[in-house]
Each structure stands twice: as C-alpha cells, then as structure tokens.
Amino acid sequence: MYIARVKWRNELIALLCVVLFVTLGVLYFQYWVVQKPFGIILFVGEGLTAEQITLTRLYVGGAGAHLGLESLEHLALVKNDSTDFAVPDRAAAATAMATGRKVANRAISIDRAGKPLANILELARARGRIAGLITNTKLTDPTSAAFYAHANMDTEPAVLAGELVDHAKLDVVMGGGGAAFLPTAKGGGRRDNRDLLLDLRRDGFDVVRTRAELEEISTTRRPRLFGVFADEEMAFVNQMRRRGEQPSLVDMVRRAIQLLQYNIGGYVLVVDAGLSRIAAEQNHAERSLLQTAELDRSIAMAQRYAGPKSTIVVCGDVAVGGLALNGFPFRDDSSIALLGLNSAGEPWMTWATGPKGARPSGRGKVGAERDRSDTQPKKEELEPAAFYAPFALNAASDVVALGSGRGTVRLRGYIENTQIFDILRDQL
Fold first, then answer.
1. pLDDT of 7-55, one tens digit each?
2. Residue 246: which domain range?
3. 3-state DSSP call for residue 268?
4. Is 292 within the bounds of a domain?
5. 223 near 259, Cβ under 8 Å?
6. What is the CATH number of the domain that holds 241?
7. What is the distance between the alpha carbons of residues 183 and 359, in angstroms, rounded to a whole number?
8. Could you give the CA distance from residue 196 to residue 201 in angstroms, rounded to a whole number?
C-alpha cells in the first residue's frame, strides 16, 4: 500500500513537472521568441515615389481607388543621396538599404576603400534565419546584387553570377538574367565554359525554369531553390506572348514565403521590383504603372501568406524619368482614358527626360517643332519628354517607405535610406 502511494505521488510530481515545463515553454515563446517577427520581407520598389503611387492608383481605378500598399500602417519620406552625388544611382541606393552605409555611386556593398560591407541577408543567415532573393529583372542587376555581392557596377554579370552561386549562401533565389549563369555553348554569355545551373543541381538545389516547375517544388523540406525564368529581364505584365510560362512577381512572392516558412528560426526575403524602372527609362508610362500595380498585388500576397506577425517594409530607391499626369482628368478616368491626348490635343502624361524627348539640334537649342500640318500625332508625342536622353535619367526626389509589423513604427517623418537597414537588422 505504501509503495503504491509513493508511486502515485511520483507520477503526480512528474506530471506537474511536465505541465510546468510546457507552461514555461509557452510563456517563453510568447514573451521572448515572438518579440521578433518570424518573417521579415523587404520590397524594393525601383522608382517608387509618392507620384508613382498616385498615378498607379488613378490608372488602376480612378481617384476613388485604393491600393493594397495603402493598408500598411506606417509611412515615411526617404532621403536618398549618396556620398558623392545628391542623386544616387541604383547601386548606391540599394547598398544603403542592404548594408546601412551610404556609399559612392557605382559601389555595390563596398566602402570607399573597396572593402566589403555586411548586408542584411548575410546577417540574417548568421542569426539562424534562412534567406531569399527575388527580382523580376536580372539577378545580376545592381539592386539585387547589393544584397549578395561586393563589387562595383563595372563588374561583369558573369562575375556577379559566380559570386551569387559560390558565396551568397541564399536558400531561395528567383529572377531573370539566366545568360550570366550559362556558357556560350549552351546559349549563355559565360566565356569560362562554366554551367552554374549544373553546379547548383550538383550541390542539391532544385533548379527551375518555368512557372509549372516552380509550383511543383515541395514545401515539406528545407528549401534549396534557384529559379531562372528568362535569359535577360523577365517580361512585362502586358507582354503576354513573351511572358509565356514565366511566373509573375506575385507567384514568386507566394512560393518563396511558402518555402521559407519551413525554417523554425524565421526568414528574411528581399523582393526587387525593377521592371517599373526599366519601363520608366523607356518612357513607357503604361508599362511602368502596370508593373507598380503588380508590385502592389505582390505586397498584398505577402501580407496574406506571411501573416500579421511578420514585418513588411516597402521602399523606393530613386526616382526615374519624372513622369507626371497633367491637366484635369475626371475622377473616374482610369486605364487607357489617362493615356494619349486629351480633348484639347495635349498629352495627359509627360516625362522630364528620356528617349521620347526632343533631340537637341545645337547647344542650348531644342529640336525642331512638330509640323502643324501633320494632324496625326507621332508616337513619341503621346508621352513626350522635355529633353532627350537615351534612357530616362534618375531624378532628385524623396522616395517613400511604408511598413507594417514590429519595428516599422520608426517609419515616420523624414528618414535616411540607411535607416531601412536599421529597422530590418533590429528585428533579426
């Protein structure tokens, strides 16, 4: 009888210990672990200014429309100079967000002495998180490269591709620019005969080239995914034939989050939305706004899949081209109603610089005016630029940053672009 009572008492004590252990574990998780967001996502909207957001809203649905990014609680204007110019280039602007350091134009995550600067994805890996990088341009473009490479803008794409494969240690990578990963014998641009995609497969990565292949990747194991969906930049939204089997930016964001959630230590994902900038450089307003609208849908997808306890930051890098909507469109005017000429024969949308500008005919002189006897407007007159440049130039303008989740309360007023890095780093 005595032995039975002792056994019962020991079992009760053991049960109480288990309950206490579980309770302490739950409390620890609730009040310590969840103090840090599980998912941290940075969207780099190339060319994302307040004006670009306004025009996208009008294009999507008129003055009464609402974009998904408007649901992000916190907002700041971002000062984005570099150490040598008041207007940064893509390399300097991205480096400030990636490393928290202002650098000279053309520098990709290196300081003035050429020494590498640690970026947010490297820090995330060091702290037990896994990391992903997505772009709808080339993976070797300066904006994306700032998050894995340490070089300058004179570095060949093949060299940057080698650094991404050999040293970056990223878990999920998706984008375009496949030519830099393949030798010339296989239709690529590498002169060293190295097939980086084959090397990745040998190293255990799932290498995918189409949307269908991307959707087939299992989410039941730690991700090792490398997706290259175009030889150069990926297709614009309205290039349906060329887009073919490519995933959209929305598709890539969704799949990346599904795969990265495998890691119990959390993840960091960087999304470079660069096609809007490429369209702006070409003075193509509709494409630029369509791509900004796709960025907006991608942000909504991230909110849905990452959940409310994740930190999401959206930040522009540098203004491009100076697109403006002029005159007095009606409140409900949207889409093609804002393109072309208004009833007075004046262009709704204009650019400051770019290939649709008047070519100078001499120093200080503007090119010849249009022949007024020609009643049909020329294509370049539908979205004219004030001054000709082969590609629209970067412009002096504060960009915008928006965010939701832990740490983003610091997005208020005016901030430096380096503070984007600070916000992300403090949540690791």
1. 566 666 666 666 666 555 554 554 455 579 999 999 999 999 999 999 9
2. 38-322+392-425
3. strand
4. yes
5. yes
6. 3.40.720.10
7. 39
8. 9
